Every structure is written in structure tokens, then in C-alpha cells.
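Course assignment 3, question 2. Fill in each field.
Student: A.L.
Task: Predict the tertiary structure for the chain below.
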Amino acid sequence: MTNKWVPHRAGLLNFWYYDEEYFHFADGRLFLRGSNGSGKSVTMQSLIPVLLDGKKTPDRLDPFGSRARRMEDYLLGEKELVDRDERTGYLFLEYKRKHSDHYITTGIGLRAKRQKGMDFWGFVIFDNRRIGKDITLYKKEKTGEKIPLTKRELITVLGDGGTVVDTQKEYMELVNKYIFRFESLEAFQELIELLIQLRSPKLSKDFKPTVIYEILESSLPALTDDELRHLSETIENMDQAKQQLEQLERDEASLRRLCQHYQQYNEYMIWEKANEWLKAAKQEEKLTEEREQCLRDQERYAARKEELATEIQDLQNEQAALRKRELDLASHEVVQAEEKYREKKQRLSNVQDQIVKRERYLDDKQQQERKLKQEIDDNLDQLHQSGQKIDEQLEELRYAALESAFAAHELNEEDFQRHRNEPFDFTLWRKETEAHEKRLEEILSLWTSHDDLKRRYEDAYHELGEHQRLLDDLHNDAKKWHELLEMEKSRLQEAVFAWKEAHPDIPVDEETIQSFLRYLNELYERYHFEDVKKPFADRYYEALDQKKAEKVKWEHEIELVKREIAETEEELRRWKEQKDPELKHDEQTAQARAALQAQGVAYVPFYASVEFYDHVPESLRERIESSLYHAGLLDALVTETDVSIVHDRILKPNPVEMAHTLAEYLRPDVDEDLGVSADRIESVLRSILISDETQEGYFTINESGRYSFGLLQGHAPKREQAIFIGRNARKRWRLSQIAQIEEKLQQLDELLQQKKEQLAHVEATIASIHEAFQTFPSDRDVRAAFDEWDRTKRAITSKQQEVERKSEKLNSIARDWQQVKQTLREKAEGLDLEFTKERYEEARRWMKLYTGHLTELVLEHRSFLHQLQVSRYHQDQLETVQAEIDEAKGEINTLASEQQRLLLEIQHMEQMLKQMGADDIRAEISRVRDRLEWVNKALPEKINEQAHIEQTIKSTHRQLEELERKLQFASTLAAVWKRSFIAEAEHGLVEVAENVDPHEQAKDVVRRYGSIGKEQTRSSVIAKLNSVFFQESANLVEYRLSQEPVALEEENPFAGIDLDEEMELKVSDWKEKRDRIILLLDYKGQRVTPFYLLKEMEKDILLQREYINEQDRELYEDIILKTVGRILRSRIQRAERWVKDMNALMQQRDASSGLLLSIQWKPKTAETEEEMDTKELVELLRMNSRLLKEEDLQRVTMHFRSKINRAREMLEEKGQGNTLHQVIKEVLDYRKWFTFTLYYQKTNEPKRELTNQRFYQFSGGEKAMAMYIPLFAAAYARYQEASEEAPYIISLDEAFAGVDENNIRDMFDLVESLGFNYIMNSQALWGDYDTVPALSICELVRPKNASHVTVIRYYWNGTMKRLVTDWDEQEMVVKQ
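Answer field:
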């Protein structure tokens, strides 16, 4: 059975118009009544909920929710009634365990000054001390005035047995810790808010069923943070994994685009080097062939030179012979005429030859003119194109300068434009470009440091966040362990109280309990369990010592009884052996009598020598015997003769005649063998007078028992009867003594048995005490909880230190980051660029492009100047050729006139020679002259040929030298291109043929990648790569994508070669094309190529997808279906049971109006197509997840996936201020999946839904029924979240106002059935209904706004109400 806390007593000290007032609860029930203004609402609201959470706001103090009432006013009182400006007061509520005398008190202290603020302190007393019983909250002055304790004095009074706090929140935590134990203060706060709503005495105009539904919904326990933590962490992990996957996929897409262009770049680079090498090699082969051919020509020319020398000599000899023959024939007139004719004809032939030559020369020059014109046109086109390219480059430079904020460009361009058509020195331009590029590099280096610090800051921040989350988890664990520790302490308390009740043999006083509770509160922190146990150990040893003392006492008493039994048995034996009983006398007397007997002296004790006469009544006999006994005569000896006596008494006869003597009552009665005669005895009898008067010299007695003898007078104590005088009397007495002794023996036996039983009981008690102490509750569970709590606290301390270190690290990084930011801004000052890394990277990219464009401008300008020079050269050539053409045309015209004239002269001379008959002579002369002419013609030709051959030999030698130089350059160029190709191939960035020589590899590369070489240019490939590089750099920031220039580190291979302009262009072209860039990225601490990273990234994506699929499976199968699903199923089933129970309770309400209420918790329909109806979902959740069909599993998975996706959407919509955990908590709030609906049914009417409209048509009592029943249910549901030991406290102002008598009875029955403790007030009700088993009723009387309140107390026991006159009586009644 749960030993719940129940409110037991409330108290107000120096508060409102109370000086010191205590209100007792009857088993957790208190009812305040009184007229308006009596203070019943003030009293109730000052206790509940103020003493639950310590909040003193005005809306808490007014059941209508206004802010008119202030706690300061209650504490100080109304100014008009009490002249008080400062006051200290206390409110407290005492809780008691239902089934044990265990008390805890919570309360608040208040100190107010009028028109000023109010001081607050809260306290809890946990050591079982009670206010007004063990301690007081005031000091009592000699005048009798009660001065409330200050906070400091209260701390001193409570000592270790209580706690005092300064703030409302701390007080609320104390109340929750010691009494209610809600999992969180939020849940406790929600309960209190609900209690405030429940407290309201009137039905608000806004109150309607829909409001009830909201209250009912909020009263259901939500999924806790701990229950959802694993789910939200898994989802966050999945989201992070998905984000990582998405980032990987984005990175992969970027990398793939980069690799595509990088592949083209690499293919072009290797094709270019292979192609250039093959071209260079081909040129080398061509020049080698030309050299060989030149050597062969040189040999041929040398042989021809020797042949020509022989031929010239032969011709010179023949020429001499022919000239002699010609001289001989020359003297003939015909010859002379013929000579003239020949001269004319020769002249004509020469003219004609000259005309032909000039015409041929003219044709050549005209053709040369046309060629030069074409070349000039081509050069002009090339010059124009080159100019356009320069303009394009300048445009690119202007744009790149603008994008890179290169301010020096404008001046450099203006300077260049002024010297565009002449050689220009680009040195300054290049230096300024390099300087700006270096500045950008420095800024970007700072940006890299900035981003690295930012990344480190974010990593440190996330790391700090993760450690903070772990710290929060540890705090949560510590909170749980502390709650468990407090619970185990509570259980230990209960166990100790139960142990105390179960073992009354160890008397435990209240001081011990208080010490125990004080020590227990600080167990293991300040005290060991042995300290906690010591007060009980002391009581144990005290009880043990006490019982051991009792055992010794009983053993001693048993020994005494045994001894007494032995003595009694001895006495019995003597009595049985003794004929006559003898009076007891001194040992010396016995010895004296034995001596007399030994001496033969006859004697007999007086009592044994006489007998009463029969007429003497028993009473008189007793008086006579008693007088004689008391006077010492009864045992005196009667001797026959006078003897000397020692240590004894004897009677010497002195008879008195004619007097009233003892002989009238007694007569001699003695055996003769004793030796004492009857006469002697008779004389003794007559010597004792019977008289009321003293007779001098005689012993007198009377019938009343008085006696006298000389100075001695006495009165004998009364005895039962005469027992010694007379044989029969002695026999009777002997027998009676034997009977008494036997009875005494029996009693002693019984007493012995009793004492043995007592001893056995004491021994059993000692054993029980031993056993009881052995069974004293163990602290094992408390110790385990404390060890875990302590371990968690140490872990918190360690983690806190780690968090502080991480925080310091974060702050350090933040300081460095701030410093870099400052340096960065200083470096970037004056640059017209957006202050972002991306913009500066873009500026750097543009600056690199600028540098490239500047290089291309230099080359293009060089080409432009070359074209300009060539164009000027061709123009000069054209002008020369045109002049030569004009001169040739004039010469041709002159020669044509001369030809005409010579033709006429030759015609005339032919007619004249024909007439002279000179044909024969002419024939001879003609033969000679023809031959001579041929010789003369052939000889110069041979000589010219000889000179030409000699010139050709010289030219060939020069040509051979030039070929040697060109071949050396070509060989070197081919070699460097070969090395460039091999180095390119060794990069392994493109596929090349394997196991073949490099030349074949180059051919294979040209064949394989020839298309890209035809379709692309170097500048276009580089531009595309740079474009995609700059574009994707922003996407691949994490990998620190960079361009690493690669160049062959070698000395100038052309250093020993005299280079012409064409060679220099080729060398420049090689230098430009030999270099390339390598793209590298960071991956796992290494610099790798994009292709390697792409392969690894594809693997990572595959692994990440597998991880996400596994996480997805775990999320929807393991977590949602099994973990969260089980919790949801439990919560829903619990709510359904709760609704069922409430319906059962409401169905049992026998409302006088015939109004029956019922409530349904209806599942809602699906909100989207992917989601399921709640009813169907709940049915599937109720099933074992392992037994679900695949299609059902998929539907549930899709449902929750839709919910979680909606959670993500909500998170995006809500944005800042919300976490995924919070949004998931909202989305998976099962309370939103259902809707509450109230139904009502009146007599002879069907059941209807209680809509707002129908609610407004209800009577006041019906509205109250419809309001209270659901709200009671809501409060009950809220209390389910507290500890099972927590009290279920509610308060009602003007309880059940407007509800008829029968329904009020049912309302009280409903309150009882839900197990509520309560404070209620009413102006009209007494609360004395048969459905209330016990009730403490306090009637408050405050006549005419008096400054005091009188409390009249009643107690209702379920059947009768009676007046209670004082506190102690009420305390006793309440306990009963």
C-alpha cells in the first residue's frame, strides 16, 4: 500500500487578520465556510496555490483572476483598520504520511513595508519537527508578545533539519523535491495552472466545451524530452548524414564538372606537347635530310667545277682558232658587208632578246607586284586581326581589372595606347600586376586563415555544443539519479518508519526520528550511513541494555522465588512435622528453652497451656489472644516452679481473688507429662485482670484489646482470629498454615512460571531486538543511487572543466579570428570589392586571368609589331617593284622602236648582199661565225657557270652552316618537347599507350586526342578550366582546391644557339606551352588529384547511402515502432483507460436533473495522403512490430516519415528559435491526433454532443456538472505524472456554487473516488455529506470588518458533525 503524503495542517502567523492560526485537515480534507468578507477565500488562496510554488502575484490571490489583491495588502492589512506599516508573517502547510507519523512542512516567510517591496523566503522542515509542537516561528517576549522569526533566526532554528531558500523558483523546487516529485518544474507548473483554473468560483462567459477540450488535452502527459531524445538525435544524425550526403553529392557534381574540363585540359596539354614534339621531330628530320642533300650538292658542285675548267680550256682553244679563220675571211668586202649585216642582225637579235627578257622581267615584276599586294592585303588583315585581338585583350584586361579592383590598369593602358605601334616596355605594368596579385594573395591567405579560424571556431563551437550537450545529458542523468536518490531516501524513510512500527521493543523517540531525518537529508554528503543509523543504534543498545537488565532482574527474581519455594517447602515440612505450631521467637530464646529442657525444668508456653471456654465468642477470643501476643505474654513460659530465666520470659502467678480475671475466659489445658500443673496455670490466669481500668501492680486487659502493666499501655492490632490458644485453634491454624503454605507454594510455582515466562519473553525480546537491528533497513539502494549521482556529479565536474577548456579554446580562437578580421580589413582597405572571401577569390581569379591576358597582350603586341614591320617591308618592296615595272615598260617601248628600225635595215642589206653573190662566203663565214658565236656564247656561260658553281659552293657552305644551326635548334627543340611530353605523361592524368617507346606514345596521343586539338585552342581550354575552377572553388572550399603551377626546372637549353626571330618565337612558344597547372585538393591530410578524390568520394557516397539506409531502418523500425511506438501505445492506452474510467465515474453520477455526461477521445483522420488515420495507426501500433505485415510496416513507416518530413518543413518555416527536437515533439504529440468530445444525455432523450450552443442552454447546475467533471479528470491526469506518494490537492472557491443538493453530494463522491485532498470554501455549504468520510470544517467569523478572525471548528466523521473546542482535541480527532 502506498504511504501517500496528505495535507495535515496549515498555519498562518501574523498574516492578514490572523495572529497565530492553525487549520487541521481531516485525512487531507479541509472545508472553510463563512459569510462574505469573513476571509474564507483569502485564507484558502493564501495557502493553495501559494504554498505550492511560492508565487505571490495578484492574479494568484483572486479567484476571478484580477490583479487588485496584493500579498503586501494581506500581510499588512487594510490601512483603515490597522495602523501598521511593517510586518513579518509566515504561511505553512504540513504534510503527513497517511499510514505513519512522518511529517514534512513547507512554508514561506514574508516581510513587507507599506509602499515598498516585500522580502520572501521559503523553507522546508524535513526532520519530523512540527510547527507549534516542536518549534515555533516566533519568539515570545516577557510581555507575552510573539515576535516572528527573521530569516536568519529561522535558519538557526531549523539547523540541519530544514532548508531555507531565497527565491520563488528555489522554493518551488523544494516543494516538488520533497512532496510531488514531478519529472520537471514545467509539469508541476502546468498542474498549478490547471488548479488555478479549477479553483475559479464562477463560470466565465468564455467558458465552453471547446475550452474544456483544450484543458483536457493539455492535461494528458506529453512525450518527455528524454523519451524523444534518442529519436531526435537519430533524426539529427540522419539529417547531418543526409546533409553530408547532399554535400558530398554536390561536391561530387562539382568535382565531376571540374574533372570533365580538367580531363579536356589534360588531354589538350598532352596532345599539345605530343604534337609539338612530333612537329619538332619532323622538322628535325627535314633539316637533317636538307643537310644531307646540301652535302651531296656540295660534292656534285665540286665535280662540276672540275668538269667546267676542262670544258672552258677546250672552248678557249677553239675560240682562238675560229678567230684566226674569221680574220682571214674578214678582209673580203662581202665579209665586210656581211659583217655589217650580221651586226645589224645581231643587234636585232639582242634587241629581241632584250624585249623578251624585259617582257619576262615585266611579267615577273607584275606577278611579284600582285603577290606583294596580296601579301600586303593579308598582312593588313592579320594586322587588323592582331589589333582586334589587342583590343579584345585590353577589353578583357579592363573587365578583369574592374572585377579585381586593379586600379593601376587605366594608367598602364593609356600609356600602352600612346605607344601601341612601337615597342612597349611592359616591365612596370607586370610589376604592378604582380604587386596587386600578391596583395590579393595575401588577402586571400588572410581569408584562408579567417576561414580556417572560422571553421575551427565552428568546430570548436560544435565541439563545445556537443560537450555542452553531453554536459546537459549528465545534468539530466544527475537529475534523474538525484530524483532516484530522493526516492530511495523516501523509501528508506518509509522503511525506517515501518521498521520503527514493526519493532516497538526498540523505543524510538521523536528526537531520534528528527536526528535521523536531518542526517538522512545530507546522507553521504556530510554524514555516513553509520551516523544516520547511530541514533537507532543508541536506542538499540539502550533497549538491549534495558532488556538485559530486565533479564538479570528476572533471573534474580526467579532465583529468589526458587529460594522462597525451597524455604516454603522447608516450612511446610516443618508444619507438617510439627504437632502444634509454635510462635516464632529469637534463636537465643530457643537455645534457652532447650537448656531448660535439658535441665529438666518443666515449662510450657502460656498459649499451649490454656483453652477458651466454649461460650467465648471468636471475636473476643481474637481480642484476648491479640492483646496477650502484643503484650508479650502469649509465648511466655509457665513453669511449675520459679526459675531463673535467661533470654526469655516467664509468668509468675499472683492471683487476685474476687476479681474479673482471665480465668473467666480461659481454662487450663495441658498434658500432664509436661510437668506443669493445671493449678499453676489457673493461678497464672487469675493473675491477669480483665478491666478497662489500670490496676497498679497487675497486668490488665479488656475485651477491646487494650492492655496495661505499670507504665506500659497498649492496644493490640486486629487479626483475623485466635490461632494459638486452644488445641483446636492451633490445629486449625496449623492446618490452615499448611494450606496457606501449600497455596503459597502453588502461587510461588505459578509466580516462578510467570517469571520464567517473563524471562523467556525478555530473552525473546532481546533476540527480537538483535534480529530487529539486524533487519534495520539497508542503505544499499540509496548508496547505489548516491554513488551514481556522485559519479555523475564528478563526471559533470570533469565535463564542466572540459566545457570550460573548450569555451576558453573557443574564446581564444574567437580572439584570433577577430584579429585576422581586423588585419584583413586593414589589408583590404581601399579596394572596391565586396568584403567576402568569394569576392576576393573571384578577384584573384580575375587577376590571374588578367595576368594571362596581359601575357597574351604582350605576345599579341609582339606579333602586331612583327606584322606591322612585315607590312611596312612589303609596302617598300611593292613601291620598288612598281618603279621597276614602270622602268621595264619604258625600256620595252624603246626596244620595240629600235627593233622596227633594225628590221628595215636588215631587209635592205639582204637585198644588197644577194646582188653581191656572197652566199658561199657567207656560208663559210656564217659557219665560222656561228661556231665562234656558239663558242663565244658557250664560253661565258661556262665561265659564268663556273663562277655560279663557285658561288653556289660558297652558298651551299653557308647554307650548310645555317642548316647545322637550325638542325641544332630543331634537335634541341625536339628534345625539350620530348622531355615536356614525357613529364606530362608521367603525371598520369590521361591514358597513354603502355610498353611502347615515347615516340609511339606521342603518335598514339596525337591520334587519340587529335580531335580536341582541332576543336580547341590552348587559350580556350585554359579559359574553360579557369572558369570551372573559379566556379567550383566556392563549392569545394572544404577541399581547398588550388592550382599548382608545374614547370620543368632546367637551364636554358638554347643558351649556345644563335637564335633568330623565328627561333625566339618558337622558344617563347615552348616556354609558354611547357608549363601547365596541376589541380590539387585536400583529402584526409593529403593533397590529391581531382580524379582520385572523385573515386574516393564515390566510395564515400556509397557508404553514406548505406549508413543512411541503416539509420532510416533503425529510425522507423527500431526507434519509432519499438521505442517511441511503444511509448505512444502506452500513452494512448493510458489515456483511453483514463477516458473509460472517467466515463464509468460519470455514468455513476445520479444527477438530480437526469443529466448524464460522457466523453469520447476520437482519433482524427489523416492530414495527408501519406499519413494514416489515427484509429488505423493505433491499431497497428498495438500489434507486435515483429508480427506486422510488410505492407503495414511500410504504411506505418510512410506515416511517420511524412510526420518527420513535416517536422523538418515546420522547422524551416519557424526558423530561428526552434530546434528539430521541439518541432518533432510537436509533430509526434499524440494528443493532437485525437479530439475530445463531450456528450450529454437527459432523461428520455437521446445522447447528444455537447456543443457550445447546447452548453449555453444548460442550467447553472448542469453547466457546473459539465465543467467540474472534466476538470477533475484533467487534474487527476496531471497528478499521474507526479510521484505515487504525492498528494492530489485541489481547491475550490465557492465550491459547487449553483449545483443542487443531490448533485453536490455526487460531486463530493466524485472527488472522493478520485482520491483528491482539498481545501474548499463556501458561504452556504457545510460539506457534511454521507459521501464524505471525514471532514475538518472551520467556520470563519469576522464581524463588521473587524481586525481579527474567529475560527469555530467542527469535525464531520461521515455520519455526525460535532464541535471541536481546542487544537489538541482537533489533533486527536483528526488522527482518529
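Instructor remarks: Residues 5-181+1283-1375 form a domain with the Rossmann fold fold (CATH 3.40.50.300). Residues 12 and 91 are 5 Å apart (CA to CA).
Grade: pending
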